TrEMBL record:
Residue ranges occupied by any ABC transporter domain in the UniProt entry: 22-270
Mode of membrane association: Peripheral membrane protein
GO molecular function, one term: ATP binding
Pfam families linked to this entry: ABC_tran, oligo_HPY
Gene3D superfamilies: P-loop containing nucleotide triphosphate hydrolases (3.40.50.300)
Name this polypeptide is given: Peptide ABC transporter ATP-binding protein
Single Gene Ontology BP annotation: peptide transport
Keyword Cell membrane set for record: yes
Biological classification of the source: Bacteria, Bacillati, Actinomycetota, Actinomycetes, Kitasatosporales
Length: 353
């Protein structure tokens, strides 16, 4: 059974502007091999009208975090601890009925693969209309009119005709636009986008990103944008959270994190990313090793087995002590601020030019 408890000593939200506040979130899954610590003590805030980007390798806990916010984790095999507060409403202790009233209404999600998220047995129009009728008590005609309006808003040609089409009759880009239209049907205050452009070509990807920014400006939604692509996040986000092994290792404004990164893992992500303005023979520097097993995560700093700079820290701090992540602009790393600045200027920055 799922255990739903609040952490008594979780720090208070950072300020009145926080529309979504997550404090000391822990999500664990029971498996045949043991307990998977998918999210391990995560805290962050999202403001109204702002976009929080979350980046990290596969298995870092990005998607699990946001499925838990929506209450879409499996209650039979998962344990959730901590605090999730959406506009004053505590979600961890909310009932399934309460969450159903919020999902698709006050908070919504754009899934990574619309072909699997959309049912092949129902028309796109029906799938857009039903949540609107449920949450707003609208008639079929009102829901149809609203769905056609939203399909037009996201750039679907001939929306009155396409309303009666099935998902397989849409192209990949059009299915993603339909997913965005579905998520925005009830004007949600929180929109979670889980790698919504991964399977799209570059031109369609740019159109979808611009569309999300325009719709956010129109509706004033808070957005959590999950991706592994730092180029995309630089275009979309106001603030950035870097996750590794279920934990946050760096956070700050998107400009601070991308232009003045302070954690070795963030350095690794940036060094392994190709740049359009670099030479064609630019050499990328991959992060050595593989992400740790969440069944048996390493002690101390979870990144220390892959970190090229752990020898710069005296003693066994990196291997024995988990570095904390403070509020605001911060990193979870035992390197001193002076060491971080020196390493970045001398060793990392030349790779990024």
């Amino acid at each position: 059974m799922t255990t739903l408890t609040k952490t008594e000593d979780a720090p208070a939200p950072t300020g009145p502007e926080s529309f979504l506040s997550v404090r000391d979130l822990k999500v664990q899954f029971s498996t045949e091999d043991g307990i998977v610590k998918a999210v391990d003590g995560l805290s962050f805030d999202v403001e109204r009208g702002k976009t929080l980007g979350i980046v990290g390798e596969s298995g870092s806990g990005k998607s699990v975090t946001n499925l838990t916010i929506l209450g879409l984790h499996n209650p039979r095999s998962s344990t959730v601890d901590g605090e999730i507060v959406l506009d004053g409403k505590e979600l961890v202790t909310a009932t399934e009925r309460e969450l159903e009233q919020l999902r698709g209404n006050k908070m919504a999600m754009i899934f990574q693969d619309p072909l699997t998220a959309l049912s092949p047995f129902y028309t796109v129009g029906r799938q857009l209309s039903e949540p609107y009728m449920k949450h707003r008590g609208a008639s079929k005609k009102e829901a149809r009119d609203r769905a056609i309006q939203m399909l037009e808003k996201v750039g679907i040609p001939q929306p009155k005709v396409r309303f009666d089409d099935y998902p397989h009759q849409f192209s990949g880009g059009m299915r993603q636009r339909a997913m965005i239209a579905m998520a925005l049907m009830c004007d949600p205050d929180l929109l979670i986008a889980d790698e919504p452009t991964t399977a799209l070509d570059v031109t369609v990807q740019a159109q979808i990103l611009d569309l999300l920014k325009d719709l956010q400006q129109e509706f004033g939604s808070a957005i959590i944008f999950i991706t592994h692509d730092l180029g995309v996040i630089s275009h979309m986000a106001d603030d950035l959270l870097v996750m590794y092994a279920g934990r946050a290792v760096e956070r700050g404004s998107v400009r601070e994190v991308l232009h003045d990164p302070r954690h070795p893992y963030t350095w690794g992500l940036l060094s392994s990313m190709p740049r359009l303005d670099s030479d064609i023979d630019q050499q990328l520097t991959p992060i050595p090793g593989s992400p740790p097993s969440l069944l048996n995560p390493p002690s101390g700093c979870p990144f220390h087995p892959r970190c090229a700079f752990r020898d710069e820290v005296p003693g066994t701090l990196c291997t024995d002590v988990r570095p904390p992540l403070g509020e605001g602009r911060s990193t979870a790393c035992h390197l001193t601020p002076e060491q971080k600045q020196t390493i970045f200027i001398d060793k990392i920055q030349p790779r990024l030019r």
